Here is the input.
Amino acid sequence: MIATKSDAEIHKLIANALCLNFANTLYGHGNVPVHEYLKDYRDLVLWSCHAGILDERQADALIREGARRPTEAVATFHRAIALRETLFRIFAAAANGESPKANDLAALNSARTDALSHSKIDRSGDRFRIAWTDEAALARVLWPIALSAAELLTSEDLDRVRECDGDTCDWLFVDTSRNHLRRWCSMHECGNRAKVRRYLKRKRKLALQ
Ligand SMILES: [Zn+2]
Here is the structure.
């Protein structure tokens, strides 16, 4: 049997930051067209695996755990979507040279506090890494996202956060290009569409001459 991948597993991770990739799991915040990559808790876990927050074993365990506790899974999913929209508003504001709203900052602070209360430093071979005290918690996928957002918001990279220039695209990314002139989420998608638009405009102009 060939398993088809869900949208959550083929979502393009173009942002150079976990928190922005998460914000980009909705295309078109408040705009049309809209594309939602996360439809339920299972999608959230599949995306987290795709984005490298969970390995496959952890993802399988969480999906099973979510199926055992459906009410909590739905509540966690709604919390995730609320956090995503908070992150989108905070970083879209930053990309446009505006300050985030106080209640969004408060929401991020509380997500960060929750993450830190479950965070610990663990030994991993001869290295150390951030690990979590409650591996079976359904909300554990939100913790690294909240910490990623806190890190980006307090780093110099905040100056490099951009919103895609594509007509209907509102994906966010950290511009890590050498000349800091990246304009699009992806050259293949929005960049090409812009090129085609410019080409058609030129052609129309020529036809009118
Ligand atoms: Zn775009």
About this structure: Residues 70-95 form the longest helix (26 residues). Helices lie at 7-10, 18-23, 41-50, 56-68, 70-95, 102-117, 142-153, 187-208.
